[in-house]
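Q: Structure tokens for this one, please.
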Amino acid sequence: MFPDVSKIDRSPSSSNLNCKELISLVLDFNHSEKRALLESGLQKLSKSDKDNVLSAIDGLYYLPFSEVLPDLKKVVFEQAKISDMAFASKFTKTDNSSLLNKFFGRFKRQSQSGSDSYFDLNNLKLVKDHMESHTGDLNYQSLNDISGLLFEGNVSKPVKIRSEAASFESFVDDSELQALKDNPYLEIVSTQLDGKLHKVKYKTLENSSQSITQLAEKKMKWFVNQRSEIGDMSDPDNLDRYIKLLANTYSELSSLNLYGTKTDTILKEFFFNTALSKEGFPPSRVVTFGEVNVQTLDSLHEQVIDGIASTHRLYEDLILRAKLGLALEDSPEWFSPQLVRKVLLDLQIEGRKNTLVKELEAFVDPAQFTPWLKYHVKENPDVLVELDKAPVPTLKKLADDFEIWTRMKRQMFDHKKEGRQEIELPFIDNDFIKMFGKNTSSDKEAFDAKMKLWYNEKQIVWRGQAHLQGVISDGGIVNMFKDIHHMGVSNQSLGSWKNGMSSGDWKKVVEPQFKNFNDRLYKGNLVEMMTDHQNEGALYYKSIGLSTSKDEKVGKAFASGAMKRVKGEQVTYGSQYADEVQENITFRVLMGAKRARKDVDLNRLRRVESEFRSTFARQQEVTAIGAIDPDAVTIIKTLGYDTQKNKVITDFTFIRNPDNPNEILKFSGDMAVDDDFDMSRLVSRFTVQGGSN
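A: Here is the predicted structure, written as tokens:
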């Protein structure tokens, strides 16, 4: 089963979600079905890699963020494999070589007090089986049952209630320090200002085991009563109340340090996995796991909501990656459950002096976060230090900074004739690069997903080319729908052109240009290159772009010889239809392709880069970066010249079948992409098939 393409635009989710949106997102999310679907998608991996990937996912829910973070940094900044990460095998037992124990053995974590906290991953299944058959309320007995199942595999062996006090040390911000001071179950020992954060030492109450038990039982009775009053969980307001209830109960029981070093693991399993799954929701990835004492209830409540949506999105994204053959490591969902999903964009109206009219909500592609993060950390290396010390406020700060960046590079614009448009300058991410030049036409679901994720399906850009000798056969035209063609590559790439180059050869030439674009975008010198390109400046023939136009007439002009050198003279734009020009042209080809998100509309660039000025506005230029992907090629017209009428006409139109992207339909005469096909004019059908990747 392929993920629903309508839901893989990577939005909305996680941060910025309200409960009503959360309901619509996760009510139909069957965790066991998604898990099975992902396992099926990972069949191409070796068994050990597959098991480690699945363990890595579990690690996000059961391990403290501080233990997961070092490996996640390697994944993001060093391109390490998820299956090779230490946290992916935290649930392993190194002293036993049997396959079962290797991948489903014991997980050990050294606590601050020096004792071990461990559980058998197989016991998670015992917990789930037990709770599925448990029809009553989740009460204090349920909590003890889970502790026994998780650590001993037996409900009759619950973890002992601790009797000794425990000491902790954390870096917190002002609001978190106040939360510690307000907590009746904790005692602050000392505080010290460390930069913008407070280094605080605190300890649990020195109560007897019996009094701690009584406090815990009282809190769990309160939890049961509150849950019964909430009612139907399909109501978004009730869900919101329930999540606040979970956060409150979890926070106070954590402060009691009920089970000593095992407390975090047991409470996390109970409240953010079992209690949610029992209500029909997926587990929640909570970053503060292990440091919940320092969190305000509002912060914890928000993180639980983000964590539920994050689980949903992680599975959706990994299933999609398995289908498309994308690197699992490049999923932005690994690094943080608090990715920005929505942003308010400025709306500009053509002709208005006061450009900012109002703000409109727009979705954000979280895949943009990863390339931005790499540049941001390279420029601000202290971010990683702060992330180690105080993950929650640092992740929030990163999200805020990314949102600021996004708003700088995106704009809503109302055009008098063309209507409302969203203008953006996105990074070219690893996923796009992986799929670029890879022919997916034989798999409609994959093809549709590729177009939806990285292309503007409503906008065709045109590029024309006139030949002074020879013609292109029908087979050659069809190949332009299959393989990267020299007609659709950047000026710089043409310098590497050799006959017989495959899509793979072209991709090696183009990929460094994608990095060049990203560098310029982040460093702020993209305008310099775009200005040089449009004015055919000193670096024109080294440009990483190629000129296309939103106006088919402009593309047709170039296909008819505009700016071509004919008999030693360059044909000026506008004089290309003269007889003395046309009689020297042997073939005219006009290519129409879906515009990639990476490509730069020069007439709109000023809206996000105020210093840019478009020189040839009437040509409606869109500078395609690197090359045109053959999957994006939608229509190709071959043009002829009517000597009697002295007019360039369309001889044949080749159109990709919208119902079957692997088929090209050849029609006589002129047709448009959105026309109803006149099958009486159908000349031939061609199959694109595979293509070289």
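A few notes: Residues 1-15, 91-116 have pLDDT under 50 and may be disordered. The CA atoms of residues 132 and 278 lie 7 Å apart.
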